[in-house]
Amino acid sequence: MMKIKNPVLPGFHADPSMIRVGDTYYIANSTFEWFPGVRLHESKDLVHWKLLSSPLSTITLLDMKGNPSSGGIWAPDLSFADGKFWLVYTDVKVTEGAFKDMTNYLTTAEKITGPWSEPVRLNGVGFDASLFHDDDGRKYLVQQTWDHREYRHPFHGITLTEFNPVTMKMKPQTARIIYAGTEVRLVEGPHLYKIKDYYYLFAAQGGTVWTHQEVVARSRSLEAEDFITEPGRPFITNFDTPDFALQKQGHGSLVETPAGEWYYASLVGRPWHHANESDWDPRGWCTLGRETSIQQVTWDEQGWPRVVGGTGGQLEVDAPKDAILTESPIDNSRYDDFSQMSLDMEWSTLRIPFTEKMGHCGNGELQLIGHGSLASTMDTSLIASRWQAFSFDAETKVSFAPWSYQQMAGLTNFYNDKHWSWIFVTFDEDRKTRVIEIAENNRGNYTSYLRDKAVVISKDVETVWFKTLVRKSYYQYAYSFDGNNWSLIDVKLDAAVLSDDYVLQSYGGFFTGAFVGLAAVDYAGYDTAATFGYFSYKELAEG
Question: Is residue 15 annotated as part of the catalytic site, yes or no?
């Protein structure tokens, strides 16, 4: 029998919304400030997953310019009803402080690959909105409810509001709180299901950290506060399993197979520890972000769902008995020679789409036009893809002719605008030559590591090769002038800096994961361009 090996979607794939249409399963994941919005995969066996094109690929559907880091797309909800796909998504504009300014939108498509309709504005009551299609034809928006008042808890409960599918408008007069959560608080991520005689509400609690959990409540009606919480332990949590490889499981969604088996897709984190740290405190650093796991579910005699193997879940889970083998690569290693005239689906950009203003690709090269720094939330010329393994090598080659230290281009490991590093070509005005430098932004504090020892690039050298060697707890950079003979720079950077857990220590945006990518900067404003010849990402076995 095939086995589901967790996580099924490694690297930053948070807040999974999983559905089945016929014999095919789909998962939609959060993308936050990364463009295009919403990550989609499909599978017929729940084991192997194929990446699909992202639905929010235009500024009409998603305009995030200026969004704060970890703003943007929070917890999309994918559903299928009335012969089409429905996608509800939240664009969060404020992440810090008393307010969470946001807008919930709806778009639909007859095919999962689109085209997707013009967005319908729903409301801004709260994030993590999902659409419930009742069996009587009525539809409801179910969402976390935000309360800015300092004397109230900001997570005000789960609100249910009827939606009119004819007018495509909300019916705000129908809004009511149907569930307040438990004493754990921070109730969010709701998904509602009608199963036999009950409405089952699945909701996350405890914050998306080590205390994260999913609870289930049920009711025979959709009236306010009629929902009763599942007795005993939470549906799923890893708070009390600190030694288990999977942590943070909670926020997710439920699906039934054609044969009547049940599975639950959840976010999950996989922490590692520095050699001198306790395995319990700190619990670790999840540089791959919040990933997606799948657990099998059974129903007890009282009609409550239970995770097979216990509330902590399992690393390996039996695949559905009626699974149809889905072809997929052995790992996520890849090579991009930029021969295509558009970026492949593994690449993401920050907040804005890849357009001619940022650069172009094709015919064996990628050109990036330098704009703002990597600390900018506006115009950043960066393309990046997820870290999907704890250890990997990534490399590229770049041609760049800067004449100012304000112009830079190279290879970056990136978490957000305050946490990143890179190896890059720039100009040293004292020595009047191009040089190779390594720099890091850590909690917004910028450090140049080479300074007067920056590597000089001879005038006759047109192309420089860069490599990053990521080894779980640390990573380094290397350079070459011929692509064969490499010089490893003696600067070891702490990989923990690129984790949700580290960022959480200093401020509230902590929802994504580490990326590796290519970038060009010209904050002098002269649009200096860099040309990249290829990108290679090779995953390494854990030793």
Answer: yes
Contacts of 222 (CB under 8 A, 6+ apart): 134, 140, 160, 178, 199
- CATH 3.40.50.11240 holds for 3-318: no
| Helix, strand, coil fractions of the chain, as percent rounded to 5 | 5, 45, 50
Domain locations in the chain as residue ranges: 3-318, 334-539
pTM above 0.90, yes or no: yes
Q: Kindly list the distances between the CA atom of residue 91 and the CA atoms of 60, 162, 189, in Å, as whole numbers in the listed order.
A: 13, 21, 15
Q: 502: part of which helix (H) or strand (E)?
A: helix 500-504
Name the burial class of residue 373, with classes exposed (0-12), middle (13-18) and buried (19+) by CB atoms within 10 angstroms of its CB: middle
Q: Where are the beta strands (DSSP E) in 82-197?
A: 84-92, 102-109, 120-123, 130-133, 139-146, 155-164, 169-170, 176-179, 188-195
Per-residue pLDDT at 276: 94
Under CATH, to which class is 334-539 assigned? mainly beta
When pLDDT is cut at 50, 70 and 90, the band that residue 339 belongs to is very high
Catalytic-labelled residue, pool 45, 188, 230, 261? 188
For 342, phi then psi, to 5°, come to -140, 160
